[in-house]
Amino acid sequence: MRLSILDQSPISSGKTAQEALRATVELAKHADELGYTRYWVAEHHDLSGLASPAPDIMLGIIGSQTERIRIGAGAVLLPHYKPYNIAERYNMLATLYPGRVDLGIGRAPGGSAEVTMALSDNFLEQVRKMPESLSELLTFLHDDFPKDHMFSKITAAPVPEELPDPWLLGTSEKSAILAAEKGIPYAFGHFMTDQDGPQIVKTYHERFPEGKAIIAVSVICAETTEEAEELALSNFLWKVQQEIGEGKDGVPSVEEAKAYKFSNAEKGTVEDVRKNTIIGNPPEVKQQLQALQLLYGTDEFMIVTITHNYETRKKSYELIAKEFGSTIS
């Protein structure tokens, strides 16, 4: 089983965005040393407690401070951008870091309605045109427009020796089918949805048998089950705060979470989050990931870990890497 990391660059309460972004760079360096396969950075816009709106900027820094780990976006929110611009940016990264760049593509807005209006025009129309935009992006990457096409005379320069690997990210059958139709790998956000993920990924493989799939899953690992459960409280409270329009101070501390009085409705939110989160000591986490592997029929998981303390997040990834040994890359 290969293991990778998806980093949303969470800001902890009492910390700054600068500290969160520096923690992302440091965690990427550590993941490189631990043997993780990929390190993807998410794109969010003015969302409470998340620090990275521009994955390509972060990847330029991360690439310069790592040696072998694949780096990528998880994901570029394509409806906000022209495909040519994205092709240029990721070709540039692939030129700097050959054979190491992934280009994950998503269709979500990544922020509020007001943010969407500030970022792009006619977002819903761009979402509707997503299949065409994705095709255009792929054609720019491969530089193979027909000779009579208006874009046949331009190139998304610089052209790298090894192109970035495109992936489509999603949480629905619609996204799985689109990835299969375009003949590209698919990343399913298990941690983001209560839909039937295994069936969605099965649909992808049925339509594209040679395709590759990654499952993104939320995991919190600690030396003991009790410690892991305690660390998870921060993330649970943060999700509740985000749902009611709060959480702007970032991921709360364990102490804050312990002191908080959850309403019955909020307890329901916590249970929903818990269902999609793997929590435990290293053997328990390994067992649960292996059980998910059987369900999904895939050989790679992308782990999302959010705790208040950056060191406990780092430690969680260390413990998982140690438990799986040399099989994670």
Automatic annotation (TrEMBL):
Residues 1-295 form the Luciferase-like domain. SUPFAM superfamilies: Bacterial luciferase-like. It holds the Pfam family Bac_luciferase. Gene3D superfamilies: Luciferase-like domain. InterPro entries: Bact_Lucif_Oxidored, CmoO-like, Luciferase-like_dom, Luciferase-like_sf. To bacterial alkanal monooxygenase alpha and beta chains. This is Luciferase family oxidoreductase group 1. It comes from Virgibacillus natechei.
